[in-house]
């Protein structure tokens, strides 16, 4: 029923095969999956590996334990969680793909922030922008402050789904942001460009101009990719 699992991909492979079976309808929503012992034998791995795979699927809302009865497929198991491989995300090609994703998301976020921002939001955005300069002046790379700046703009939209999506993507964007900021820090002209691009986003949001805000955010990410390519990162 299951393919044997290579040793180097144990728990991830077990979890993925279980997901494939659930998606194919082998284990329907509400049905009970085989015991750890049976799965261990079927996959040819230890019960610890099976337990780790099941734990991951529990955390993702795919499986749910029922006291004294076993592990069951949840009613919403067909709603697949979005995943990005963390190791893959640090590869050069993936960095550019992540920048494409970030461009699409953040353009809309900036647009909505321009429409919905309050005076309190504007103060928070200004403070977040200043924090980037402070981190860099203190000798840091400014990555965390950069991510926080963009999150503050997302908060100004008033849309919790923008915030959650950005938080999810930011888990993987930190690597890409560190690469871009390290590259930008090597050249004064790059660093100046980044600062001016951030200022343009903030200015458009302050003016309440959604089109200008979206264009400024979009241009910022385009330029980040361009600066990486100019530096020979590919």
UniProtKB/TrEMBL annotation:
<dbReference type="Pfam" id="PF00392">
    <property type="entry name" value="GntR"/>
</dbReference>
<dbReference type="GO" id="GO:0003700">
    <property type="term" value="F:DNA-binding transcription factor activity"/>
</dbReference>
<feature type="domain" description="HTH gntR-type">
    <location>
        <begin position="8"/>
        <end position="76"/>
    </location>
</feature>
<protein>
    <submittedName>
        <fullName>FadR family transcriptional regulator</fullName>
    </submittedName>
</protein>
<keyword id="KW-0238">DNA-binding</keyword>
<dbReference type="InterPro" id="IPR036388">
    <property type="entry name" value="WH-like_DNA-bd_sf"/>
</dbReference>
<dbReference type="InterPro" id="IPR000524">
    <property type="entry name" value="Tscrpt_reg_HTH_GntR"/>
</dbReference>
<dbReference type="GO" id="GO:0003677">
    <property type="term" value="F:DNA binding"/>
</dbReference>
<keyword id="KW-0805">Transcription regulation</keyword>
<keyword id="KW-0804">Transcription</keyword>
<dbReference type="Pfam" id="PF07729">
    <property type="entry name" value="FCD"/>
</dbReference>
<dbReference type="InterPro" id="IPR036390">
    <property type="entry name" value="WH_DNA-bd_sf"/>
</dbReference>
<dbReference type="InterPro" id="IPR011711">
    <property type="entry name" value="GntR_C"/>
</dbReference>
<dbReference type="InterPro" id="IPR008920">
    <property type="entry name" value="TF_FadR/GntR_C"/>
</dbReference>
